[in-house]
From TrEMBL:
The protein, known as: Anti-sigma regulatory factor (Ser/Thr protein kinase)
PANTHER family for this protein: ANTI-SIGMA-F FACTOR RSBW, ANTI-SIGMA-F FACTOR RSBW-RELATED
Entry-linked InterPro entries: Anti-sigma-factor_SerPK (IPR050267), HATPase_C_sf (IPR036890), HATPase_dom (IPR003594)
Annotated region described as Disordered, given as residue ranges: 86-108
Taxonomic path: Bacteria, Bacillati, Actinomycetota, Actinomycetes, Propionibacteriales
Annotated keywords: Kinase, Serine/threonine-protein kinase, Transferase
Chain ranges of the Histidine kinase/HSP90-like ATPase domain: 16-134
Amino acid sequence: MGTATRAVTPVSMQLPFAPAAVSEARRALRSWLKDADVDDDFAYDARLIISELVGNAVRHAEPLPGDVLTVAWEINRRGLQISVTDGGTADRVRSRPRRVPAAPTDTSGRGMAIVETLAARWWTERGSTRTTVHAVVPID
């Protein structure tokens, strides 16, 4: 799908807890994937996934201390693993990341369906003060 031809160092960065974090994360991931000589189609899918995960965090969660969120990615034996960590929410049931049915006329609600379609696997880790959503995109 997106074979990396160069070794690259894993990334972990804090971004402001704001809508602008989506484009910052996309730009940073794009540059990193370019350094790894990853195929453009694969890079597009990876950037779409990180956009959805960061956008969902900003819309549906609370920030980490310092009004930030953390994004991280690395290439490991399973593929490209993307992770987004936020401060979680008080409503741990309703705000749990999940795929929801969206009507054709809905203007939102498709984010996790997109992630589920493009990723080989995605999951959530939740603690008392943070939530991390991970997605793995296979690279072969």
